[in-house]
Structure formats: C-alpha cells, structure tokens
Amino acid sequence: MVKKVSKRLRELQAKVEDRPYAPLEALALLKETATAKFPESAEAHIRLGIDPKYTDQQLRTTVALPKGTGQVVRVAVIARGEKVTEATNAGADLAGSEELIDEIQKGMMDFDVLIATPDVMPQVAKLGRQLGPRGLMPSPKGGTVTFDLAQAIDEFKAGKLEFRADKSGIVHVMFGKASFSPDDLLINLKALQETIDRNRPSGAKGRYWRTMYVAATMGPSIEVDIAALRDMKASDAA
Fold it and tell me: Which region is the signal sequence (predicted)?
C-alpha cells in the first residue's frame, strides 16, 4: 500500500532541490521546512560504508552536542547501596536496585537514558527484551555502564547522546531542535561528524561516508554536502 503524501509535505518537498546543500544552507532550509504544529527535532540520517553484521564494522558510541539537545533528558540509574543515593543526589530522575529492575520488567519506561554500575549488569542483562528494541540497554561503549555516576548523569543531561549504526549501516541521530539557530545546529552537526570519523570501525573499507540527509521531524529530507562539512574546522562552525 502506497502511503499518501500530505499536501503540506508535498509543498515543502517542492522547496528542496535534488542536490547536496552546503551545511549551513541545508540547516537554514531545515528550519524553513519545520512547519508542524509541535516543536520539531532536527534529525540526521547518515549512510556509511559499513556492514554491521561483521563485528569490526559496527559503530556504537556517544556524542556530546555542544549546544545540547533542546530536550529535558530523564535519566534512570540502577545501582546498589550508597550508589543509589549518590545517583539521586547527582540529579537522577529515577534510581534503585532490584525494585527498579522489577518495575522495568513490568513495562515502566519513564526515562530516556539508563545508566548502570558494572556490578549490577548481570541483573540488568535480563531486561534485554524491554530495553534492547528501544536502544536503552546500558553498555560500556555508550558510557552508560560506569561507577562515576555523577559525571555520567551530568553529561547525558547536558546533551550527550548514544547512537549506533542500524543493520543497514545507517546512523539516525537527533542533533537538536528545529528552533535552534542554523549556527547552533551546525555546531552540533559538526560535533556529530567528527565523532563518527573518530570512531570509524577498524573493518570499514573503501569510502566511509556515503550520504547525509537532515530533516525536521515532519519535514522533507535535505542532502548535505559531506565533503564541505568534513572540510570545515570545528572553530569555523562555532
């Protein structure tokens, strides 16, 4: 069944030319096409030259967005003993031990990030069915398995995001709000690009970057000139 495209989206698509846009130009157009009746996010969709079915071609890491996400991030922590109190004092929205694990098993998912201390990971592992499909399973690579709870909570609330390439080798990341200025969106997008380059999987062969598109949540896709973005210095974006 072919999904019907709304008149609003057709009109917005007509504004987008079939060509790669300079990064700042693309982000200005993203803002122009964010016309939904709710605050839209700015999203990046990046196709990489990797095959994640091989362990040496998987990408899973975190990015610290200098201008934040524009969202209130709810952080939950699973720990033991004094670490539960430490997490609460550090600003965790939820903190607990076995009782929090039980609540999550029953379907409670009132959080955006789940952090766990290494000693409770054997118990957290049984939450794979609930957390896995949502990308919320704590992992050392994602910075969400740690004893340094205060730092982790601060970073994720300030704009640190975990992301991974899906099974097709595509990275989908929210990198701010459409209400941000084009300059602030560019600073966040540059940080994302540098993070992806810095974490290039060892098994990636040939051309690493294939395509990058940005879009508002309900807006059309806009191709970004990857070479122009990579050639920019972070200081240029700032």
Answer: none
